[in-house]
From TrEMBL:
It comes from Kiloniella litopenaei. Coiled coil: none annotated. Belongs to the LysR transcriptional regulatory family. This is LysR family transcriptional regulator. Keywords: DNA-binding, Transcription, Transcription regulation. InterPro entries: LysR-type_TF_proteobact-type, LysR_HTH_N, LysR_subst-bd, WH-like_DNA-bd_sf, WH_DNA-bd_sf. CDD domains: PBP2_CrgA_like. One of its GO terms (molecular function) is DNA-binding transcription factor activity. Residues 1-58 form the HTH lysR-type domain.
Amino acid sequence: MDIEALTIFAEAAHLGSFAKVARKLNTDPSQISRTISSLETQLGVRLFQRTTRKIALTEAGKRYLDRISPVLIELQQAHDEITSMTSAPRGHLKITASVSYGQKCLLPLLSEFSETYPDITLELLLTDQNLDLVSNDIDFAIRMAPIIENDVICTKLHDTHYRVVASPTYLATADAITKPADITNHKMILFSLPDYRSEWQFKTKDGHISSVPVNGTLMISNAIAIQECVHKNMGIALLADWQVDRAIKEDQLINLFPDYRVAATTFETAAWIIYPNRNFLPNKTRVAIDFIRRRLNSLT
């Protein structure tokens, strides 16, 4: 049994393209096609239906993938367990996160991570799109959500809370803000997603919830840019604690409602680490997740 051929077959099934497998393995697409054709000849069945644009598993291909996938996982697990006993974590590690979370929370960790794990080549994809982990060959993602509903494994990294913030200079010349309803008289810098630009919710310590309509003449799709506008005294904004708590601590921004929990959609949201549904995490992925969790927890 040719383990390399089985691995290529599984990759082609997951990625849906011989060309994508070839790029991942740094080889010619024709070599991938020949490997699959040879495997089909050995089995005496067609594993893929092929067109000029895409490939799709046949019924036989689906059954074969279901049977060999656990075997390939076991083999990879055995390989990683043995190599982790004799060598430091190594390999190419691809992580994705939102632009704002990456800039605020991950970039400050990169230098220490590289020094701690010099044999890991890190690729950090910062985008506000939820990229498909399998087709983009991503090891894990960090995403903001109340809960993750998908065919993935997830673990909570930390809870996320929101602050209504403004700069001291803006507040010095603006109308006083003593209760949530007062914000309607102020300039607002709004996140451009529909759920974030209609109303904000405020919860008191005893659980009472009130909604305040919001309206602004400036809407921006990037949280980092919104914070920059707040620093430039352009109004108030709703931003995550992991983004603004340092600026609040350093008196660069003012948390307007420290006695309230504030949200645009839900009060229960978090940062999640998610990765494809696998029975075993490669050593490089495991140490990276542990490192990020440990360092972020030490900063909170």
